[in-house]
């Protein structure tokens, strides 16, 4: 039997970023508050802003401000981008890695699982946060909503599968919101919901998460179980 026949099939763990890998809520709320002020809109509800994390930016703004027209949604989104970039430029951008996630990445890599990201962040923002935490080299596919449809559309999963050559049956999405779980279901891949993010556990369960974990180090075991080790 050849070595190629003995080789284990490729497997992929596809992580959300905001609320799953890093805690970016305070920076996001800060930038959204600045954007609203720039357009005389008062202050957004921080809890509502958190609930929109993961959606494409203009879509998130449209849901937060349903009474405004599309041009205003785009303008507020642009102001948000400017505010977020200003935070980064001033050194005031804090997006800490959640505890245990580095251990999980180590464990999955040691098991031969490929790592990827599917996020509502822009590619520029994702590159910056991965570089800050020294993680850029860990991920073989990076999918962002500025190059195609965002969550819960399955496009980011499909692109990750095409990038890596991994089959859907050997892929797991890890995320903290119902958008992540719905994206996974739409792409017909397994999913792990994490409890430390921006949507409640009951919502993740209701959206159809295959597993729920409560600590960063637990993610690797849940993913490997779903991939049948």
UniProtKB/TrEMBL annotation:
Signal peptide: none
Hydrolase keyword on record: yes
Keywords assigned by UniProt, alphabetized: Hydrolase
One Pfam family of this chain: HAD_2
Domain of life of the organism encoding this protein: Bacteria
GO terms, molecular function: phosphoglycolate phosphatase activity
GO terms under biological process: DNA repair
InterPro entries in UniProt: HAD-like_hydrolase_sf, HAD-like_sf, HAD-SF_hydro_IA, HAD_2, HAD_sf, PGP-like_dom2
GO cellular component, one term: cytosol
UniProt xrefs under NCBIfam families: HAD-SF-IA-v1, HAD-SF-IA-v3
PANTHER family reported in the protein's UniProt record: HYDROLASE-RELATED (PTHR43434:SF24), PHOSPHOGLYCOLATE PHOSPHATASE (PTHR43434)
Name listed for the protein in its UniProt record: Phosphoglycolate phosphatase
Organism per entry: Azospirillum baldaniorum
